[in-house]
Amino acid sequence: MKRILALLSLACLTLLSACNTVQGAGKDIERGGEKLQGAAEDAKK
C-alpha cells in the first residue's frame, strides 16, 4: 500500500512540474512573438 501511495505521489508531482514548464515555455514563445511583431512594425516605417 505504501508503494502505491509513493508512486501516485511521484506521478502527481511530475504532472504538476510539467504544467509549470509548459506554461513557462508558452510565455517565452509569446514574448518572442511580440518582439518579432515589433521589429516588423519598425521595418514598415
UniProtKB/TrEMBL annotation:
Q: Which residues form the signal peptide?
A: 1-24
Give the matching InterPro entries: Entericidin
Assigned keywords, A-Z: Cell membrane, Lipoprotein, Membrane, Palmitate, Signal
Family, per the entry? Belongs to the EcnA/EcnB lipoprotein family.
Q: What is this protein called?
A: Entericidin A/B family lipoprotein
Lineage of the native species?
Answer: Bacteria, Pseudomonadati, Pseudomonadota, Betaproteobacteria, Neisseriales
